[in-house]
Write a structure and sequence with these properties.
alpha/beta, UDP-n-acetylglucosamine1-carboxyvinyl-transferase, Chain, 2 domains, 4-stranded mixed β-sheet, 13 helices, binds shikimate-3-phosphate, binds phosphoenolpyruvate, transferase, EPSP_synthase, 3-phosphoshikimate 1-carboxyvinyltransferase, aromatic amino acid biosynthesis, cytoplasm
Length: 427
């Protein structure tokens, strides 16, 4: 795909699609709750459609019409043994949270994903789930897909997670819902808390004490109605675009503002971006509001420590932002980037260098020297099949002089099928 380059201005209003993390969880909790769950503004991206497909294979009736979804819950213990392999596609969230639910189900299931999933570590969830009593095997002893699992009666554990990962935390909490007693997880830093909030929305109980989260099971959840706010991780591409493309003003409507996800806003503000947030509402479940961003002068910053889990998926687009900031931006403590859809330290550095960015990889992040004018003579950049790399490169092209061709642009459909239409509507 030939990307738009040297864009003179981006102006307009965008409704980014529903949050991916919340959409997955709404279907999953809806499936194990009693009664009907209705979901509005569900993300009909490939990852969330994989989640729907897996639960349909376990006998759950799910009607999906665009962003409107109705799940007929089976109740805890009501899922059926699937007669076919559960295919999670490109979705790490589907794989890991599903394993947590399957750990408490007294049947056998086989789980597989695409080439990228086959490289992503599953031991981080299969290890604690085996400690709880699930029988799990797979490639390299259950560290990688294909994985087979036979769940059943579990024992509660208190797990000290070595990584701040919402997928690990959620898998254990979901297993804990089916377990007699109190199951707890302690994380080194706080990760996104959508599972905790959503268990409560379904009438369940979760106890939070500092970095420890616990559920006491067994718990029966009740179907509910959910509005999924816009995905701040999708909004991030336009927040950065609005800040770096000349003469721009973009408003993003109904964007999720859960504080465990708003690291990108903190970074933009710290770097001096002109951002305003208005109409903040729904503080009780998942807060959301409208964000306006305008072209800004930017200064370099350091991004590290507890900020990292609050913006982990935004680091590719933050790297681009840093190329347009005066000074040297350092991103560290982010080695989790190596186990995403691609090794995002490598793919970001390789692809941005093709456009003339001054960026180096480090063991746990990257160093970016700004401000650099991006330019290319017939550059061919590649998403490497990673949606976030593809979208970052499309925004990078907007501030590049020259011609830029993107390989594998279709990857964006994993989290944002309408991305290119939305971008072009602003030009
Ligand atoms: O729980 C979730 O919905 C997610 C958690 C994060 O992964 P980790 O749990 O591996 O940090 C994030 O990168 C992913 O896009 C979605
Ligand atoms: C890492 C991501 O998702 P997942 O882990 O669900 O594949 C992402 O969306 O950037």
């Amino acid at each position: 795909m030939q990307l738009r380059t040297n864009v003179s201005s981006l102006q307009g209003i965008i409704h980014v699609p529903g949050d991916k993390s919340i959409s997955h969880r709404a279907v999953m909790l809806g499936a194990i709750a009693h009664g009907t769950t209705t979901i509005e503004n569900f993300l009909p991206g490939e990852d969330c459609l994989s989640t729907i497909d897996c639960f349909r294979k376990m006998g759950v009736v799910i009607k999906q019409d665009g962003s409107h979804v109705v799940v007929e819950g089976k109740g805890q213990g009501g899922l059926q043994e699937p007669s076919d392999i559960l295919h999670v596609g490109n979705s790490g969230t589907t794989a890991r949270l599903l394993l947590g639910i399957l750990a408490g189900c007294p049947f056998h299931a086989c789980l597989i994903g695409d080439e990228s999933i086959a490289k992503r570590p599953m031991g981080r969830v299969t290890k604690p789930l085996k400690m709880m009593g699930a029988r799990i095997d797979g490639r390299e002893h259950g560290n990688y897909t294909p994985i087979s699992i036979r769940g059943g009666e579990l024992q509660p554990i208190h797990y000290e997670s070595p990584v701040a990962s919402a997928q690990v935390k959620s898998a254990i909490l979901l297993a804990g819902l089916a377990t007699d007693g109190t199951t707890a997880v302690t994380e080194p830093n706080r990760s996104r808390d959508h599972t905790e909030r959503m268990i409560r929305l379904f009438g369940g109980n979760v106890a939070v004490d500092g970095l420890t989260v616990a559920v006491t099971g067994p718990q029966q959840l009740a179907g509910t109605s959910i509005y999924v706010p816009g995905d701040i991780s999708s909004a991030a591409f336009f927040l950065v675009a609005g800040a770096v493309v000349p003469n721009s003003e973009i408003t993003l409507k109904n964007v999720g503002l859960n504080p465990t996800r708003t690291g990108i806003i903190d970074v933009l503000q710290k770097m001096g971006a002109d951002i305003t947030i208005a109409n903040v509402r729904n503080e009780q479940t998942e807060p959301f509001g409208d964000i306006t961003v305008r072209t800004s002068r930017l200064a370099a910053t350091e991004i590290s420590g507890e900020l990292i889990p609050r913006l982990i998926d935004e680091i590719p687009i933050i790297a681009l932002l840093a190329t347009q900031a005066e000074g040297t931006t350092v991103i560290k403590d982010a080695s989790e980037l190596k186990v995403k859809e691609t090794n995002r330290i490598d793919t970001v550095v390789t692809e941005l260098r093709k456009l003339g960015a001054e960026i180096e990889a480090t063991e746990d992040g990257m160093i970016i020297h700004g401000k650099s004018a991006l330019k290319a003579e017939k550059a061919v950049v590649d998403s490497h099949g990673d949606h976030r790399i593809g979208m970052m490169l499309a925004i990078a092209a907007c501030i590049t002089k020259g011609a830029v061709h993107l390989k594998r642009p279709e990857a964006v459909a994993v989290s944002y099928p309408a991305f290119f239409d939305h971008l072009h509507s602003l030009i």
